[in-house]
Request: fold
Amino acid sequence: MKQNIYDNPTFFKEYTSLRESGLTYNDFLEQPAMKTAIGDINGMLILDLGCGMGDLSKYCADNGAVSVIAVDISEKMIERAKEENSDKKVEYLCQPIEDIELPAESFDLVISSLAIHYIADYFALIAKISKLLKEGGRLIFTTEHPITTAQKEMKGWVKGDKGEILHWPVDNYQEEGQRKEHWYVDGVIKYHRTVSTLINVLTEHGLTVEKVEEPLPTKEGLKKLPKLINEYRKPPFILIQSKKS
Amino acid sequence: MKQNIYDNPTFFKEYTSLRESGLTYNDFLEQPAMKTAIGDINGMLILDLGCGMGDLSKYCADNGAVSVIAVDISEKMIERAKEENSDKKVEYLCQPIEDIELPAESFDLVISSLAIHYIADYFALIAKISKLLKEGGRLIFTTEHPITTAQKEMKGWVKGDKGEILHWPVDNYQEEGQRKEHWYVDGVIKYHRTVSTLINVLTEHGLTVEKVEEPLPTKEGLKKLPKLINEYRKPPFILIQSKKS
Reply:
């Protein structure tokens, strides 16, 4: 049974209200890093895995992509994407990203923003993505950083008596697999994978790692959302760019 | 001024006595991982950077390497290497590994065991290594894991009231640079680098990342040195294998 937390009404309400604030990690850290990594996409056929409300798919359409297939498991998210980010170049599909069936070697670029940590079978997903990419095509994704997901009981920062942050606790690093977290609702399931797994599964499927990033907040972000300064202390996400060769 | 902690008499005495115990991380975790990664070295010209007492250089000579140039900054280490691991195929050189001057494209394999975290200028070192490698040659190295080196005040595991390990503290992750640690003597200097820096500097110098490992203890190690079980909780080293292409 694939998790579809974004269709939980409580979660959806809280999540969309966070996104609408315009004051999130996505706005000031993850999306800027993704857009820089994506670079020039003129003329490209793009697949967006875990497209959510479709912002990045729409960005691709607006910036020269020929077509974007955008996939998400959540009906509510796809509905919202169609309302807010409709574009004749973007086709929204509601299905689990692991289940996509599309012709081999169809895409110049596969992107995935903070979705892969929800996927149980990373190996199978990367195998599928590698087949879908054209020769020379790229996979660029962000996922929660292994430092962030390692600990089994995810309690967040360790704080001192006055509530000040002391450090981030790492434990259970080598034990990959399911982690449960409270994020608006109980039991949000994520999957912890080590740095080595994230990288080696790519190279095992013919994808050459071009760049790894541990994105930092933008200057604007640090002004508008001061708590982003903590992201210098421990990386929230990792971005990996690889090329089929 | 390059650090030469291994020539400090107190440090050298403690370190050699640890190594002689045969009960170290090197024996049960780092060296097994390096030897597996090195694989078949028959007929190869090898450069060993930070060779210490020469065990790995001698291993290469014993396993088919045609010649090994083994470099270390410490006179005491090189002296010991010549006593214990002398071999007509191995040439020991006492100098800082950053300062080596050897003909370009001379080596099939460059290895470096737990030395690179002592080097201030990783970029310059990798540039040099990339030039020294033949086309298709490999660089395989281990270095302290960024999770391990991140915190500025290196205090080790956070423990509970009864001395039990609670977790490993991560802080200052994005602030690369010098870290001081007490290891037998005060002020042992290491350099913290992020995962992205460790990888991107390789790809920027024409080295394709083939494999990343976060080595686990061997079964024998877990029996003989039970505290190695903690290495499942937090990785001590990272091993990166790359190829000049």
Remarks:
- The first helix of chain B runs from residue 9 to 21.
